[in-house]
Amino acid sequence: MDLSKLNLKIRMFSPYVSKKAASAVNKVLKSRYLGEGPVVKEFEKKFSELTGAKYPVAVNSGTAALHLAVVMAGVKPGDEVITTAQTMMATSHTILAQFAKPVFVDIQYETGNIDPNDIEKRITKKTKAILPVHWTGYPCDMDEIHEIAKKHNLPVIEDAAHALGAHYKGKSIGTISPYTCFSFQAIKHVTSADGGMLCLDSKEKYDEARRKKWFGIDRDNRKPSILGEPLWNVNEVGYKYHLNDFSAALGLENLKELKSILKRRAEIVKRYNEGLAKIKNIKLFERKSDRKSANWLFSMHVERRTDFITMMLKKGVEVSVIHNRIDANDAFGPLRKDLKQLAEFTKTHVSLPLHNHLSNDDLDYILKCIRGGW
Ligand SMILES: *Cc1c(COP(=O)(O)O)cnc(C)c1O
Does one domain contain both 238 and 135? Predict the structure, then answer.
């Protein structure tokens, strides 16, 4: 199949941009101040209101949030971090950036999330953190993960790039682990074009993250100097990870619509679940009633996946695996052979279009294509 000749009528992703975003961004552009300023603060405040996260720190990507978390968790060269290979490779790049080793554990075939039953046996003296990913936005088994983490005195870093607005046993994702990392990258359901949020569980960590995201400078307490450069004494490694005000302006206007964004996505997922429930060659993912997905993706398992994808593409509907296991890449390889459920998952998972510009007619068309068989 010549992929360059495809005529795709329905795409996997389509960024949602609030009607109010352009004027909000324009206001920043006219303000003479483009860097991190009052709009970033407002963005953090709104984020806090909506998620209940007490100590959110805005950064310029989800990857930056993850890297800061890995650094703050004390991951150093030669250390190990327990994580999953079913993710975007950013998750583990941040571990490699510390010259540490991602230790991949198995996932649940039914959800794509890390399998708590496979974690404990892979913990060694070098393990410094557990880094789960909420695949599609559906929360991992956090109670089980926290129990293991507590027993071994390990911090949990949640990669919640898919999970803004998700809930686990009544609690908002962003409020249950020492570190939770969100992404506002272009195709995430709330976007600031690029951006991220690192949520922390203490004022000490919050202050540390605020310094480390900006070269280690304590911006709130620096003193002005007649020489121009403020007075400070940086005594730690810092990064250039802060968000700027025009990204925050875009993110803020989109974030204000989080509730309706999530509501529509949940409706789409409901239609998919109902429409696909009786189709023999499809296995829907497990969805427990004790948690609520943010529905960034709609993933499922299909038999004869290549035939399925070919059929859908020919009918003008983009479908995709989104991410294949990252240990297939040399940087994270070699491919682990003892991750049986991940191996099965890798053969059959696929995701359908899910974004806020899909109409009900689009959904009917997608379901009709699938019901026609492949
Ligand atoms: C998008 C994504 C990231 C990276 O976020 P950026 O904002 O693009 O840096 C990390 N992990 C997962 C699972 C993602 O989907």
Answer: yes
Nearest atom in ligand 1 to the alpha carbon of residue 196 is 7
pTM over 0.85? The answer is yes
Whether residue 250 is found in the same domain as residue 265: no
- Asked whether 183 lines ligand 1 (CB < 6 A), one says yes
Residue type, 311: M
- Atom of ligand 1 at shortest distance to CA of 195? 7
Of the candidates 136, 161, 252, 190, the one whose C-alpha atom is nearest the C-alpha of residue 15 is 190
Digit-by-digit pLDDT tens for the chain (374 residues) are 788 888 999 999 999 999 999 999 999 999 988 999 999 999 999 999 999 999 999 999 999 999 999 999 999 999 999 999 999 999 999 999 999 999 999 999 999 999 999 999 999 999 999 999 999 999 999 999 999 999 999 999 999 999 999 999 999 999 999 999 999 999 999 999 999 999 999 999 999 999 999 999 998 888 999 999 999 999 999 999 999 999 999 999 999 999 999 999 999 999 999 999 999 999 999 999 999 999 999 999 999 999 999 999 999 999 999 999 999 999 999 999 999 999 999 999 999 999 999 999 999 999 999 999 99
Q: State the CATH number of the domain containing residue 312.
A: 3.90.1150.10
Active site residues: 188
Among 238, 257, 276, the domain-final residue is 257
To test the ligand 1 pocket, which listed residue (12, 13, 63) has its Cβ within 8 A of the most ligand atoms?
Answer: 63
Sequence-distant (≥ 6) Cβ neighbours of residue 26 within 8 angstroms = none
Cα dihedral 40→46→47→52 (10° resolution): 140
How far away, in angstroms, is 226 Cα from ligand 1 center?
Answer: 42
